[in-house]
Amino acid sequence: MGLVESSLRRYKISNPTADPLSTMRYIRRARHAGSWYSSDRSELDSMLTNFLEEARSASSSNLENGEKQDGNGQVGIPRACICPHAGFQYSGPTAAFSYLALEEALRENPSLRTIVVLHPSHHVYLDGCAVSGAAMLETPLGSLEVDNELREQLLLTGKFSTMKKLEDEDEHSGEMQYPFISKILSNAGMLNDQNGNCFTVRVLPIMVGSVRCAKEEAFGKLLSSVLCDPEIFTVISTDFCHWGKRFGYAPLPSSNLGIPVDKVYEYIQHLDRKGMDIIEMQQPGAFADYLREYSNTICGRHPIGVWLNSVVVNANEGKERLEVRFVKYDQSGKARSTTDSSVSYASAVARSMLH
């Protein structure tokens, strides 16, 4: 049995087609370094260190209060996280809470070998999912190797396309995860050379396009056996509500909610919390209904939808049951009138349920 055939059996990915076209792999440059985050290695490292230390301190306090436990008082290993992707000065403190989960997963699960990053497309119309075509992902903290084996397995299904270099580099929602990943791998002692490059744990970015619910379900089912593998950790990249006229979304609270008219930020949190509650309940259909009812501008709604469908498949098939809990929420500013704007950031951790 060949390597690819063996790997397909390992992940139970069905319907392989002809071998994908040979593609010249590229080095994905850190295009948003110097604007969305610092391009200076020392400065960036210090910033992320501070974010992680602050999140760790806050999480320790929560743990003392029992907030990390599930309903049975049991705690499982982190298997996935939902993480924001705005500029680090805005979303970095919230994102750090997500990456404490990856830090714990690496510590508690020595078999972890690949981090799958599900992220949206902000610039390219895509009616499906596309894997990164990169060989390496550059960050100011060191480069990350792309999991070519898993990429080829997904391409063999005939259901995934491949990002072009410009499409890959223009998209910030994947890139904003890579410096944090590199930092966490460094903290775990998993960098392999003096330049901070990592070849022990690989990364596979997957861009999820503007797909309908049926395709979210199909891709979730297709990816389910991959995402439940103990060697895989999943990062779902998304911001939450983009509120304000510049985003074309500025609903105001109805009088029956009891939210003061000058506290729009409380209404935004109310909207976000409705969606977050449904995500915690792991109900992709209800999440789609919520989006149709409120039109909340959650830019990673399709990656969330694909992941939730995967979670449901694995739970129904008895492969893996997860507890999903949001651990941090913030906004870029407190909107008080229609002249204001804000973006919401939320971090969630999905843990395996202990039996």
Description:
- This protein has 355 residues and is α/β, with parallel strands linked by helices.
- The chain is 40% helix and 19% strand.
- It contains 11 helices and 12 strands.
- Strands 1, 2, 3, 4, 5, 6, 7, 8, 9, 10, 11 and 12 form a 12-stranded mixed β-sheet that branches.
- Helix 9 (264-281) runs antiparallel to helix 10 (284-294) and helix 10 packs antiparallel against helix 11.
- 48% of the residues are buried.
- Mean pLDDT is 89; it is low at 1-10, 12-22 and 68-74.
Brief digest:
By secondary structure, this protein is an alpha/beta fold. Helices cover 40% and strands 19% of the residues.
How is the secondary structure organized here?
Layout: H1 3-11, E1 26-28, H2 41-64, E2 78-83, H3 88-108, E3 114-120, E4 129-131, E5 134-137, E6 144-146, H4 148-155, E7 160-162, H5 165-170, H6 172-175, H7 178-187, E8 198-208, H8 213-227, E9 232-237, E10 242-243, H9 264-281, H10 284-294, H11 301-316, E11 322-331, E12 342-352
Parallel strand pairs: 1-5, 2-9, 3-8, 3-9, 4-7, 6-8
Antiparallel strand pairs: 2-12, 4-8, 5-6, 10-12, 11-12
What tags apply to this protein structure?
disordered N terminus, 355 residues, twelve-stranded mixed β-sheet, 40% helix, alpha/beta, 11 helices, single chain
Form type: globular
> Termini distance?
35 Å
User: What is the percentage of strand-forming residues?
Assistant: 15-25%
Number of helices: 11
Strand and helix order: HEHEHEEEEHEHHHEHEEHHHEE
Please tell me the overall pLDDT.
89
The portion of residues assigned to helices is: 40-55%
Query: How would you sum up the major sheet?
Result: 12 strands, mixed
Poorly predicted parts: 1-10, 12-22, 68-74
Structural class: alpha/beta
Indicate the radius of gyration in whole angstroms.
20 Å
Count of individual beta strands: 12
